[in-house]
């Protein structure tokens, strides 16, 4: 009996000494709701930087992914208001070289087609054109184009590569570098602190960055090595990471207009509020009307993009064939979603309810089955929780 008891105690002691695997820090997640006159954080949780165990705060800057395309559309519409660009004009007139589908050399490509992903461009040839490479050369690759239909008639195809073209056109038309143009037309009028690829943002702003992690815990983006004073733009090997000699209108891909905006959720909510209120500091009334106009349902499109206009998505929950089930209600909303580097984000405006939400959540697992363009369980859960908290009138200061 004594031998058995001694052996049992030794076994228990051995089990007790086995260290437990440390729990992963909670993913960073922030949700901010807004209405016509107020902006209110309702969910602020998790770690902005696991290496230092720095908690996320309400307005820490994060890479918002494709919501950046909506920011780009606002800058484009501002130049329309200023008479510097025409949405339906051949973009070759601005670029100084012919942008043409190789199978349809006589068919022009327009800003409206590019912003609405109906230009025949596709991402099969890639969409990052680093400093030191030619934007023009990218589109000599047949893989960059949809085969079988010309620009304007091709089916909707979500193409990130169209954004560098749009941004470069805006540079050529205005004479302004893209990051400075967006600052002048979108951020500065609203007193928002934001930037593209960390260019032009203060060092203390960059130091508050939300680091993006994969669900495995692997760092995906915006750790210290990805931020100033390090190089923050794509460059060809052997090319100096320096924009002093950059000529606007040559290759705005370096600013990642398709997804490179860094901004906090409070400031993103303020931008959404300005769109909701049709703030004249951004656009004239016709510009807002054109921006918000939903395009007809897109036959054969990814379910997330059943309605897509000038870099603005419209959610129609309950519509057959559309995977628009982000919110617990069936209100129609417009805005844009973001997905990249383990992050899911969104800026959504309910025009009837006169309210909206800006949010992000990190470390979201990759889909286990083929991605059909829908929303993740993690962002659905975050949005549902944010809506429920907002309905109780509670929030975070």
Automatic annotation (TrEMBL):
Q: Which InterPro entries match?
A: Beta-lactam-related (IPR001466), Beta-lactam/transpept-like (IPR012338), Diverse_Enzym_Activities (IPR050789)
Q: Which SUPFAM superfamilies match?
A: beta-lactamase/transpeptidase-like
Provide the coiled-coil residue spans: none
Keywords for the protein's UniProt record, in alphabetical order: Signal
Per UniProt, residues of the Beta-lactamase-related domain are 28-369
Instruction: Write the signal peptide boundaries.
Output: 1-23
Query: What's the name of the protein?
Result: Beta-lactamase family protein
UniProt organism field: Qipengyuania soli
């Amino acid at each position: 009996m004594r031998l058995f008891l001694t052996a049992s105690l030794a076994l228990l002691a051995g089990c007790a000494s086995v260290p437990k695997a440390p729990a992963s820090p909670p993913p960073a997640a922030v949700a901010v709701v807004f209405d016509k006159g107020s902006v209110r954080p309702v969910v602020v949780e998790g770690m902005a930087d696991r290496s230092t165990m720095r908690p996320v705060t309400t307005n820490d800057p994060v890479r918002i992914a494709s919501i950046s395309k909506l920011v780009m559309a606002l800058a484009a519409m501002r130049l329309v208001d200023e008479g510097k660009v025409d949405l339906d004009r051949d973009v070759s007139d601005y670029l100084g070289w012919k942008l043409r589908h190789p199978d349809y050399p006589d068919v022009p490509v327009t800003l409206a087609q590019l912003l609405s992903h109906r230009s025949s461009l596709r991402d099969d040839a890639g969409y990052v054109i680093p400093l030191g490479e030619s934007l023009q050369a990218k589109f000599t690759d047949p893989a960059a184009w949809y085969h079988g239909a010309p620009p304007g008639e091709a089916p909707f195809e979500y193409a990130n590569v169209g954004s560098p073209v749009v941004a470069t056109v805006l540079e050529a038309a205005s004479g302004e570098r893209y990051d400075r143009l967006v600052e002048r037309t979108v951020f500065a009028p609203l007193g928002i602190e934001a930037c593209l690829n960390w260019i032009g943002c203060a060092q203390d702003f960059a130091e508050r960055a939300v680091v993006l992690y994969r669900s495995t815990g692997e760092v995906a983006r915006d750790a210290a090595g990805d931020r100033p004073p390090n190089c923050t733009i794509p460059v060809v090997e052997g090319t100096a990471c320096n924009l002093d000699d950059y000529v606007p209108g040559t290759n705005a891909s370096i600013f990642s207009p398709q997804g490179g905006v860094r901004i906090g959720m409070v400031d993103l909510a303020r931008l959404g509020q300005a769109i909701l209120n049709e703030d004249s500091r951004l656009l004239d009334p016709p510009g807002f009307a054109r921006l918000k106009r939903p395009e007809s349902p897109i036959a054969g499109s990814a379910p997330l993009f059943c309605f897509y206009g000038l870099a603005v998505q419209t959610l129609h929950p309950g519509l057959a064939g559309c995977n628009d089930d982000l919110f617990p209600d069936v209100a129609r909303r417009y805005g844009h979603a973001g997905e990249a580097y383990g992050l899911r984000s969104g800026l959504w405006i309910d025009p009837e309810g006169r309210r909206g939400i800006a949010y992000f959540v990190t470390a979201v697992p990759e889909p286990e089955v083929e991605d059909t363009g829908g929303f993740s369980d993690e962002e659905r859960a975050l949005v549902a929780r944010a809506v429920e908290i907002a309905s109780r009138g509670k929030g975070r200061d």
